[in-house]
Specification:
single chain, alpha+beta, four-stranded mixed sheet, disordered N terminus
């Protein structure tokens, strides 16, 4: 098990996230001068041995931030430009369109990786949990949200209730749904 303060290896959970997204990573953190880097790789749909080197401050948070920065800075044009001169040679596709699609795939993969890494250690605090109650009866379907005072507020539609929850708690809110079906004679 890797120690959280050990600057020689990524945490097991980060390596697992990388591997779950199809990347190979030995987990080693390399040091050069006063900076650290990690490299990881995977094959693209067109068979490129794609590698990324992520430079960071040596901390878990720094690695996550650096991957996000790489995702934000990823440039499909720059990725394709490197391969234009090699088109049709040594396994490089001759189609520029294929090169662009492969680069877009890489952009999507690094974005998904950044999203997954940013989700680490993010338990949902109580104030980020909302309750949506759906009541079905002879009058139709009704939608309610639980308020801070433990009373429920009714909405005209599911969309209106959802919009209220997102506005109040944020887009990353965890919504617990209660369903109550009442048909009595």
């Amino acid at each position: 098990m890797n120690n959280e303060h050990d600057n020689t290896a990524l945490s097991d959970e980060i390596v697992e996230i990388l591997e779950d997204r199809g990347f190979y990573c030995d987990g080693k953190i390399h040091k050069q001068s006063i900076r650290y880097y990690v490299d990881f790789s995977q094959s693209t749909p067109l068979g490129e041995d794609w590698s990324e080197i992520i430079w960071f401050d040596g901390s878990k948070e720094g690695f996550v931030e650096a991957v996000r920065n790489r995702a934000n800075d990823f440039d499909v044009d720059e990725e394709v430009e490197v391969w234009i001169a090699c088109r049709g040679e040594n396994g490089c596709p001759s189609s520029i369109e294929a090169l662009v699609e492969d680069a877009k795939w890489k952009e999507e993969q690094i974005e998904k990786l950044a999203d997954a890494l940013e989700g680490l250690d993010r338990s949902v605090p109580t104030e980020k949990k909302a309750i949506l109650r759906v009541v079905v009866n002879y009058a139709g379907t009704q939608f309610f949200t639980k308020e801070d005072d433990d009373y429920f507020k009714q909405y005209e539609s599911l969309e209106a209730a959802r919009d209220y929850i997102i506005h109040k708690y944020g887009a990353d809110v965890e919504i617990e749904t209660e369903t109550d079906v009442r048909f009595s004679y």
